[in-house]
Amino acid sequence: MIAELFLSGIIVWLMGAMASLALWREPAAARRVACGAALAGSLLDLTASAAAIFSASPIAISLPFGNPVFTWAVRLDPLSAYFNLTLAALAAVVSLYSFGYLKEMEGRRNLGAFGFFYNLLLLSLALVFTASNAFFFLVAWEVMALSSFCLISFEHEKEKTRNAGVLFLIMSHAGTGLLLIAFLMLTTASGSLDFSSFHLLASRMPPLEQGAIFLLFLFGFGVKAGIVPLHIWLPEAHPVSPSNVSALMSGIVIKTGIYGMARVFFDFYGTPPIWMGTVVLGLGVASALLGVLYALMEHDLKRLLAWHSIENIGIILMGFGAALMFRALGQANLATLALIAALYHTFNHAMFKGLLFLGAGSVVQATHTRNMEKMGGLIRRMPVTALCFLLGAVAISGLPPLNGFVSEWLTYQALLAGFGTTQSLTRLMFPIAGSLLALTAALAAACFVKAFAIPFLALPRSNEAADAHEASPTMQAGMAALAVGCVTLGLGATLFVRVFDPITQQALGVSTSSALVMAHGLALSPGTIHGGTISTAGMALLFLIAGAAFALPLARRWRRRSVTGPVWDCGLPGLTADNEYTATAFSKPLRMIFSALYRPRREIQAEYEVSPHYPSAIRFESKIELTFEKRLYGPLRERIMALANRMKGIQAGSINVYLAYIFITLILLLLFVVRG
Amino acid sequence: MTGQIIGRLIESIAQLCLLLAIAPLVTGVIRALKARMQTRRGPGILQPYRDLYKLFRKGMVIPETASWIFVATPWIVFFSTVLAGLMIPMVAAEAPLGLFGGVLAVIYLLGLGRFFLALSGLDTGSSFGGLGSSREMTISALAEPAMMLAIFTVAIGAGSTSLTQIAGAAIGQNWRFLAPAQMFAFAALALVLIAETGRIPVDNPDTHLELTMIHEAMILEYSGPYLALVEWAASIKQLVLMTLLINCFWPIGLQPTWFGFGALQGIAWLLAKLLFLSCAIVLIETVNAKTRLFRVPELLAVAFTLGSLALISTFLF
Amino acid sequence: MTPFLDMQIGDRIITLMAALVLVLQIAMVSQRWIVVHIRIFAAQSFFLAMIAATIAWFNHAPHIYIAAALTLVVKVILVPILFERLVERMEIHEEIEPIVNVPLSVLISGALTLVGYVVAESFYKPGEPGLGHNALAVAISLFLIGFFTMINRRKALTQVLALLSLENGLFLAAISLTYGMPLIVELGILFDVLVAAMVLGILVYRIRETFESMDVSRLRRLRG
Amino acid sequence: MLLIALLLIPVAASVASFFVRRREAMEVANVAGFGIVFLASVALAAQVLARGAVSLCNGFFYADALSALVILLTASVALVCSTYSIGYLRDDQQSGALGDDLTSVEQLALLRMYYSLTPLLVFSMLFMAMANNLGVMWAAMEATTLASIFLVTFYGKVTSIEAAWKYAIIGGVGLSMALFGTIVTYYAGHSLPGSDALSGLNWSVLAQHAAQLDKTSMRLAFVLILLGYGTKAGLAPMHTWKPDAYSEAPVPSAAILSSALLNCALYCLIRFYILTSRCLGPEYPGRLLLLFGLLSMGISVPFILVQQNYRRLLAYHTIDHAGIMTTALGLGGVLGSLGLMLHMAFHTIAKSLLFLCAGNVSQHFRTDLFSRIKGSVIGAMPLTGVVFLMAMLAIIGMPPFSLFQSEFLIVRAAFDGGHVLTGVLFVLFGTGVFAGALLHVGGMILGPKSDAPPAGPRPWRDGSLLALAVALVVIGFWIPAPLFELIRGAARVVSGQ
To answer: Fewest CB atoms less than 10 Å from the CB: which of A534, C102, C120, D65?
Structure first.
C-alpha cells in the first residue's frame, strides 16, 4: 500500500514533468499542469512517507529501469521516510505558492521547461532520500544537482546567474567525486553496492580507511549542505534562482547533504572514534557563526536568507557532532537526544526557511528589487506577507514559543548534558559550543530585526516599495500554511517528538519519546536524569489568556485616549525616508566590532555647494571582504589556471617537437623492456 | 493532581503580585541610593510608582508612521517579561511555572521581548529608534555567550537547567558561592546583568542624549500607558535578572516551599538580598563613567573570559 | 658445398650488406643535398633488396624473391623517380639545414646504433640459427636513426625520406627475423608504402604551393 | 557473406560517387550505401549473437562479438554522419565556406572527393575490424590514415594543410612502430607449427597458442604496438596531431575520426592486449596501459581548462576518453572490460553527437572560438543549444546519461583491483575536465538572446542530431537486451572469461 502510494507520487511527478515540457507553447496550461502535478505528487508522497515512518518493516521497491549491471532500487526505512516527509511537506506548500508566483513569468519565460525541471527536482529528491544502493543514490544525487542547476540558471541571460549556476554544479560535482570514492571503498570491502551491506561496515574497517571514508563523506556531503569552508556556492546560487526554487533549495536540497551524513554516521558507522564527532561539532560551530556573521552584513534580502541556511546547517551539525561524540562515549540516550535535536531542527529549518524565502519572493516580486535599502513600509501594503514573514523571523531566531526555540533548546540540553559524560578535556567542547550557539542565536535575532524591520516597517524608501501590492491568494495561502506549520511544530512539540522513535530505534536502538514527554504531553524534557522542562504550549496558552483578559480590553480603552502625531524629528520639519535608519547603519556596530573578520572598506563621496559643512549630496559605500572567496578559492583558481596556461606550451605547434616526444617515449620504453 | 495545579496557581499569583509590586520599588531604591551617593536629594523611593500611575492615566500619541507592531510591542514585552518572572524561584526554591521552562526559557523570553522592542524602535522611522535597536541588539548578542557560559557552570553544578533544581541544589550550602567556579560565574553574570539592564558603564538609564542612550532611544516614541508598560517591564526584567543572580549563587533564606510562615521569612530575605545587590550596583554605577559603545565589547569579553574560567575551574576543582 | 658453409657465407654477406645499409643511413643523417639524399635512399633500398634476395637464396624461400623484386621496383625505382620529379618541379635548391648540427647528429646516430644493439641482444638466443640477430640490431638502429632524422629535418620532403628509410629498417627486420612475412602481408605493406609516398608527395607539393617554402618548422599556426 | 557485403558496399558507394556528375547523386549513393552497411552490420551482430564468432575464407576474415560491436558502431556513426553531411555540405556550398574563389566545377570536385573518400575510410575501418591477420589489420589501419588525410585538407586552408601534414607524419611514424610490433609478434610466434603460412599471423591462431609465444619478443612487441596504435588512438604523448586534425577536418569527418576511428585504434590495442596478457599475464600490459591512460587523461585537463576553441575542446575530450578506455583496458578483469565496452558504445554516440552540434554552431556563427560567439547558442538555435549542453553533460559523466554508468564501472574496477591511486586520479581528472567543459560550454550555450537573425530550418542536420540525441537519452535508462548481450560478449572476449 505504502509502496503503491510512493510509486504513484513518483509517477505523478514524472508525468507532470513530461506534460509541462510538452505544453511549453501554452504557458498558462504548462504552469497549471506543472504546479498541479507537483502538488498532487507531494501530497501522495506525504501520506506515503508519513505511513512509512511507523511501518513495521522498511518498504523496498525496485524501479523498472537500468540494465543487468545496475538496479534502480529504493527503500523507505524510517530515516528515509522522515526526510521524505520534510520534502513532501515543503514541496506541497511551495507548489501551491508557485501557482500564483509563476503567473508573473507567463509569456516572458519558458514555463514548460521550468515545470519539467521543477518536477524533476522533486522526483530526484525523493529518490535521493530513498535510494538503496550506492549507484542509484549517485544517479539520483546528480540528477538532483542537474535539475537544480537548470532551475538556478533559469534566468540565464544575467551573467551573475550563469556564473552562480556553473559554480554550483562544479562544486557539487567535485563533492560527488569524493562520495564516489568513499562509496567504492565501502563497496570493495562489502562486495556489494547495496546500502544494507554497508550497515555498520565502516566501523569494522582499519582505522586509517575508516577515517578516510569518514572525511570523504563529510566533505562530499558537506559541499551540498554548504558547511564552511565549502559554502561559497550557496550565497551565490540561492538568491539568483526564482524564489520558489530558492525555498526548495534552502529548505530541502541542502538537507540532502544532512540526510547523507545521517545515513553514513548512524547507519554505516557503529561507534565511531571520538575525533569524528569533535570534527563535526567544530565544523558545525564554525558554519553557524560565520553564516550568521556574514548574514548580518548582507542587504540583499535573499542572500541574507541564504547565509542563514549556512548558519542553520551549522546548528544541525552541532547536534550530529554531539550525537557522534556521545556514541563514542557510550551514551546511547544522550546520542538519541542530540540526534533528535538535529533532525527536529532539520524539519523546522525546512519550514521557516521555506516560509522566509516565499515571503522574500512575494516582496521581490512586488518591489522588483532584492535590495532591502530600497524597500520599507511594506507591512501596510502587504499585511499577510508581513505577518507570515514576522512569524518566520521569530521562529528562525529561536524565540519561544515557535519551533526554532524547541529544537535549539534540545540542542542546548544535549550539549549541557555532554559535560558530565567524560573526564577528558574534550568535555569542555560542549559548553563552549553551547555558548557559541547562544551567540549565534542572538546574532540571528539581531539580523532578523533588520531583515523584518527594514523592508516592512517605517516609510517606503523607493517608489517601487511605495506602490507595492499584496501577493496573490495562492501565494498567501502557501506562506500561511508554512506559518501555521512553524506554530504547530512549536506548540505541538510533545506530539511531534514521537515521530523520532522509529528513527532513533533504527539508528541507535533507543526510543525515548516517552521519556521526553512530561506532564501528560504538556511539557517537553530532555529525558536526562533531572533536566529542565519547557512547555511552549503552556507559554502560548498564558499569552493568549493574558492577551484576551488584559491586552484587548485595555488597548481598546486606551485607543480612545490616543491621538496620532508626527514622529519626533529634532525640530527639522518633515520626517522623510532619508531620515530612517538603514540596514547598513543598523549593522554598523557589529561591522566595527568584527572588523577583523570583515575587513570593511568604506568610500564616502560628498558634493559641497556652499561650505564643507553643508554637503548637498553624500554617497556612502561600505564593502566587506568575503574571506574564503578572497583568500582561499581565488588564489587556488588563479594557481590552477596559471599552471594550465603554462602547460599549453606542450602543444606549441612544432612537428619536430611532437616527433621528439614520441621518440623519447620510444627510447625509454625500449630500455625499460630490455632491463625489466 | 488537581491539588498540585491549584497549589501552582496560588504560588504563581503570589509571585506575580510580588513581581509587579516590588519591581518599581527596586528601581526606586537604586535611584534614591544613587542620588545619595552623589549627594543629591533625589526623588523618593516611591517615585516609580507615581510615574507609572501618572502615565497610565495619561493619553498618548501614536506616531503616524507606526504600524500595529508599535502597538503590540508593549504587551508582548510586558507579558514575556512577567512570564519569565514566574519561571524563577524568588521566595521558594520551587519556581511556580518551573514546568513551563527553566533558565533557558527565561533568557529566551527576555529575548522575545527585546526582539519586539527593537522592531518597534525601527517601526516609527525615527533615527533614534533605529540607533537604539541597533545598539541594543548588538550588546545583547555579545552578552549572550558570557551569560550562557555562566549559566552552564551553574547548571552543570546542579545537573539541570531547571531553576527549581538549581536553586534546590543550592539550598543548605549557603557558602557555596565561595567556590572559585561559582565566583567566576557570579562575576560573569553580574557583568551581563549590568549590560542587560542598561546600566552604567554600558548604558545610562536616566539620560536622553542620543550619543549615550540605548534603551531610552528605542522607546523614545512611546508615551502614556504604553510607555508605562514598557518601563514597568524594564524594571521587572531588572528584578528578574537580579533575583536570578542572588538566588542561584547566594541561596540564603530560600524556602523549600511557598506555604507556611516560611514564605514571609523568604520574602524578607529576598528584599534584604535585593537591597544588598542594589547597593553594589549603585556603587558600580557611581564609580564608573559610561564607556564608549565600542568599549562595551571589551567589557563583555571580560565577562566571557570569566565564564570560561568558571567552566575550567569546575573542570579542575 | 654443404649448407652449413653456405649458411656462414650467407651470414657474412648479409651482415656485410646490413652494415653497408647502416652506413648509408648515417650518411643520410649527415647529408646536405636533397637530391643526393634521395639517391642514397635508393642505394640503401637496393642493398635491402639484395639482402632479401640473399636470404631467399640461402633459405630457399621463394616468396622472398617477390618481396625483393617489389622492393627493387617500388623503393629503388618508383619512389626516387617520383621524388626527383617533385624536386625538379618545385626547383628546390637550398640545402637542408638540420636542427642539430651535423657532427652532433652523427654522434647521436652512433648512440642510437648502440641502443639498437642493446635491444637486439635481448633477442639473441645461442640455440638459434645465427642468421638474423645482427641484422635485427641493424634494423632497430635504422629505425631509430630514421626517426631521429625526421626530428632533425626541417624540409617536408626530407622528413618523408626519413620516414621511408625508417620503413626500410622495418623491412630489414621483417626479412631477417622471420624470413619475410606472409606474402600477402608484404604486398599490402609495400602497396601502403607506395600510396603513402604518393600521398605525402602531394602534401609536400601543396605545402610548397601554400607556404612558398617546404620548411615545416614554420607550420606553427595551430597551438594549444 | 555478410562480411563480403559489408566490404563491397562502401567501395561501390565510393566508386559510384566518384563517377556521378551531380551532387544529389553522390548524396544518394552515400546515404544509401551507409544505410545498407548499417543494416548489414546489425545482421552481423545478430548472427554473432546467435552463432558466436563468424569466420570466412579459411579464417582470413574473422568476426567475434568484439569485431561485431566495433563494426556496428562504425556503421551507425557513418550513417548518421552521411545524412548530416548532406545538409552540412550544402550549407558550405551556399555560404562559400569551401573557398570563395572556387568555380562550381571545382566545388563539385571537392564534394566528389569528400563523397568518395568517406566510404573508403569506412571501408578500411570495417576491413580492419574483420581482418583476422594482424598484418592485414595493420595495412587496413594505414589505409584509414591515407583515406582521411585529404578529408583533413578538405577546406584547403593554410591551417588545414598544416594539420594534415602533422596528421600524416605522426600517423605514419606511429603506424611504422605498429608494423614493427606486428613483425616482432610474428617472430614471437614463428616457433609455432605452421607459422610461416599465411595463418601464422592470424589472431585467432595466436590467441589459441598465446602461452607458447616467445616471452621477450612479446614484451618488445607490446611496447611497440602500444606506441603505434596508441598514436592512432591519440594517447599522450602521441596525441599532438589530434586537436589539429579534428578542428580542421569537415565536421562529419571529424565526428567519424573522433568516434569510429578511435574505436578502431583501441580495437587493435585490445587484440594485442589479449595476446600479451595471455602470454605474459595481465600485469605487464596492464601497468603500461594504465600509465598511458592516466597520462592522457591528465594531459587533457589543463588544455580543456584554458581552451578557447570549442572544436579543439572536443578533440581534447576525445584524448581524455581515449585515456579513460585505455585505463579500463589496463584494469582488465570482468568489470574493467565491461566498463570499457560500455564506454566505447556510449562514447561513440555522445562524441559524434557533440561534433555534429559543434558543426551547427560553427556554421551559424562562422567561428570556432568561444569568444567570438555573440549572444547565446540557445537563443539562436534552441534545439542545437539544448542538445549540445545535454551531450556535453553526458560526455563529462553526468547521470542520468549513460557514460556515468561505464565510468562508475571503471572506477569500481580500479578500486576492486586495488588500484586506489588510479581510481583517485580518475576521479580527480574527471572533475577537472568537468569544470573546464562546463565553464566554457555553459558560457557559450546559455546567455541573452543576440539580435542576430535566428537560424533557418536545417532538416538534415537537425534530424541526424535528434536521432542521436534520442539514442543518447534512451540508452541511459534502458539498453536493448541484444545490444547489451553484444557488449557483454565483447567484454568476454577481452577478459577471456
So the answer is: C102
